[in-house]
Amino acid sequence: MAEITLQLNQLPEAGFNKPKPQTYQLDAPLQAAVEVAINLGMPLLITGEPGTGKTQLAHKIAFDLNKHNRDFLPTPLVFHTKTTSAATDLFYQYDAIRHFYDAGVNKQTQQALPHVSEYIGLQALGKAIALTAPVGSPQRKYLKDANLTGFAGGSVVLIDEIDKAPRDFPNDILYEIERFAFQIKEDNNTELLKTDAHKIIVLMTSNSEKNLPDAFLRRCIFYHIPFPDETKLLNILQSHLGENSPYASAHLINLFMQVRQLLTKKKPATAELLNWVKMLETHNFLQKSAQDQQKIMRISYAILAKTFDDLQILLSKP
Fold this sequence. Notes:
Elements: H1 28-40, E1 44-48, H2 54-68, E2 77-80, E3 92-94, H3 96-109, E4 120-122, H4 124-131, E5 155-160, H5 168-172, H6 174-179, E6 181-184, E7 190-193, E8 200-206, H7 214-217, E9 221-225, H8 230-241, H9 250-262, H10 270-282, H11 290-304, H12 308-315
Parallel strand pairs: 1-8, 1-9, 2-5, 5-8
Antiparallel strand pairs: 3-4, 6-7
């Protein structure tokens, strides 16, 4: 009996799940929502199942805008929302501990303490605002990223999983997002303000884990990404694997949709589909005997099921 083993050289490449904006499938309703948000200068709020491409959309927008305008950053500036996030975290962070430590050391050595701006690190939206100013502008002094210091232009800001933040967070950032301006209180309330020369596109994602405030929702363009149908899933597979790949097949998509119907706790999304098919391709699934295919399929369930109960459902299949 042939044994199915995992070899290191059989594993998918690490970059398989990296953003690939050139392969992103942007349908007409979503394209319309993006264009409305850009034209009106309003934040775009995207919801949908985890793994349906909400985060990837930000990379797609930045990629397309840069393709037509080199004064636009080709990748988004990302803010990963946490349960402890405060409004100021979206714009900048102040390293108070290092500042306090340096003050004590410099007091002993009689050396001059660096300016407070050295302890300010801009975050996603703060960087975007600073980047709209010309190179050499005073408000760019807080930019610490070497790869951004020579760039001036527009950008996409991704506020990922905003529903994770404390309830006051969305309302607390409304004024700053509408004005694209904020103050750094630790540096004499210095204000950084977006210039009119470049655009900032704000994209926010939500997994709908909790409701967002009404006042916040009124100021957003909203779009829900539905789970793709079989035709779109086939297009997604073809864009990643190539149109002629035998693994970009309706048969595998049908198997995947059957799994989605079976699972009760957490249904796999497009991200799991891509990982699953890549794993099957790596193991030459279609060239194996029926017996070996069954073994490979059981191994692959670890990609599709994310809870113990769901995994047991798949393993109990004949």
